[in-house]
Amino acid sequence: MNIDNIKKIELEITSDCNAACPGCTRTRFPELLKIQSFSLEDIKRLFPTKNEISKKQFKFCGVLGDPVVHPEMLDMVKYLTANDGYCQISTNGSYQNVAWWKELGEISSNTKLVDVVFAVDGHKETNHIYRVNTVFDVIERNMTAYALGGKGFASATWMYIVFDHNEHELEDARKTASRLGFKFARRTGIRNTINDWIAKLPKKDLVTKKLIKEEFVITTSSDNAHSKVEQVKELQQFINTYSNSTDIVPIIGKSTGNMVNDEPTRKRILDSIVCKLVHEGEIFIASDLTMWPCCFLWQLAHTHRDEFLKLTKDFKPGWNSLINNSIDDILAHEWFSSLLEESWDPSHKMHIEKCIRTCGNNKAYQNEIKFINDNT
């Protein structure tokens, strides 16, 4: 596999973000967070010619940050679109000014190569409850500026995670998206279905007048739950059989004392893995310029760094770093070229159960997205 085989590149251009969403890795593991970014010059170095860019999808998203916070993001989009690269930008929409958003809208309208996914989980009353530290009036201003800049032809989607506390504003959000000319979609995740999040919302104490943090429990009822919970439970049961794990947590390189004796089930589940790299031609570039097959394994390496280093101890230092290696160099590395796929088998010495959990049963674990039009 080389860069010619890659169809999609997810770019975590920064680990910085202005929000504090309770389900986010940066919020849940603040002690591990280090603000890092890579530059426009890094983009040009990694993708120096139109040949490496044209017809590919560049997804500005990541695990730890919001790409719009990066001061060079607009220039990165200009460079990639000038070379026929398609850019999708996922953001909470509450950063940058009106002029910035208008210009991005113009680029989207003129090139037809930019789509913005506004991750806005509520309307005026509720968005700030999950998207902690964001201000809806600023988001609405920025979305309006983007739409105006594109003169009705800027491509965008309002992506709305439905929780119990914001369900009543779903229709208000859909109407606003329609007025702006945006697509509208509701999103459901397994993590939101199986977890209640604790949002720490800033509030002024009426007595002391000091700013305090008030806790709000974020829940997801069965009506808004992920539809494939049972398929994910089957994967967890499969994992438990060989790892003795009882929690939905990542366990890296765990001893496989109890191998699965039901060979047909074992084969069916391993064959059902749909890998972003192997099957879909995707790579992930993290904010520290390390390269991964997907966001899931970067998130795992970030939160369980010591365990991951033990697993890859025989690899030379910097083996997946794009500071001193090219994309093709890393794709040719044995972990990318063969060991990753081999390690899906629980008996493999480099097995990572997260591959089964997140991508088994035809990606049952991954987010469900339903687009809603004006007539629904």
What do these coordinates show?
The protein is of the alpha/beta class and 376 residues long. It is 36% helix and 16% strand. The strands form two sheets. Strands 10-9-1-2-3-4-5-6-11 form a nine-stranded mixed beta sheet. Strand 3, helix 5 (98-111) and strand 4 (114-119) form a beta-alpha-beta unit. The model has no long low-confidence stretch (mean pLDDT 93).
Count of runs of 4 or more consecutive helical residues: 16
Sheet having the most strands = 9 strands, mixed
Q: Which value, in Å, is the CA radius of gyration?
A: 21 Å
Tell me the β content.
15-25%
Portion in helices: 25-40%
Structural class: alpha/beta
Element-level helix/strand string = EHHHEHEHEHHEHEHEEHHEEHHHHHE
Strand order of the largest sheet: 10-9-1-2-3-4-5-6-11
Strand runs, count: 11
**Shape type:** globular
List the SSEs and their pairings.
Layout: E1 8-11, H1 25-28, H2 40-46, H3 50-53, E2 57-60, H4 73-82, E3 86-91, H5 98-111, E4 114-119, H6 127-130, H7 136-149, E5 155-161, H8 170-180, E6 183-188, H9 190-194, E7 197-204, E8 211-218, H10 229-243, H11 263-271, E9 282-285, E10 291-292, H12 295-303, H13 305-311, H14 327-331, H15 334-342, H16 354-363, E11 368-371
Parallel strand pairs: 1-2, 1-9, 2-3, 3-4, 4-5, 5-6
Antiparallel strand pairs: 6-11, 7-8, 9-10
Helix pairs in contact: 4-5, 5-7, 10-16, 12-13
